[in-house]
Amino acid sequence: MIKKKELEIFLSTLKDFESPKENLEQWSTPPDIAAEILFIAYSAGDINDRIIADLGAGTGILGIGAAILGAKKVFCVEIDPNAYCIALENLEKAKRIFDNIDIVFLNMDVRNFSKRVDVVIMNPPFGLEKSTRHADVIFLRKAFEIADKIYSLHHFSSKSRRYLINLARNNGFKGSILRTFHIPLKARKEKHRKERLIIPVDLYVFEKEY
Ligand code: SAH
Hints:
Blueprint: H1 4-11, H2 31-43, E1 51-55, H3 61-68, E2 73-78, H4 81-97, E3 103-107, E4 119-122, H5 135-146, E5 149-155, H6 158-170, E6 173-184, H7 190-195, E7 198-208
Parallel strand pairs: 1-2, 1-4, 2-3, 4-5
Antiparallel strand pairs: 5-7, 6-7
The structure holds S-adenosyl-L-homocysteine.
């Protein structure tokens, strides 16, 4: 069994977005945080032998990490062809090092993905840009539709906490916050460059209530 630090080190060798697109809110989960999230899910029995979807997979860091930790199969869904190509390169790299990596990368809009899975693990767009307004809600609704257990990262605010927990309840899910991370964004906008933007991000778990 791979150790958390070893997973983090491998994930840090994966290729990142080449020129991240702001209109898709492309920023990748830092390797240490990705490894942390994946081990939290693994410890809860939500990775080993599970069918997993990584929605808005970007360059594949979460999906590939889940496959390394023993997922039965991972579907990585990403709309951007450039990110998709990088993800395929990253997949090849993982396959050279680890056995039993079973990942399908799908270059498509998450709204058109309809496969039923056991668990969703995702870092979706936060819906902060004009072009991505409510993207987080679109991703969550899709996740509620296809899985009974969801791990998802969302931008922190007390308003968004109330909103997302309510949204979950209205969809038959119980939501709670497992951790709050502080993630340094590689700032691209001039106004952010001076501020060294660090954003608070909540890791939620959502579980279907019966
Ligand atoms: N999950 C990755 C990337 C996070 S950035 C990681 O943790 O590193 C969010 C990703 O969602 C971007 O790659 C963006 O291109 C993708 N995305 C945005 N809208 C999408 C949509 N409608 N369907 C599928 N992917 C989308």
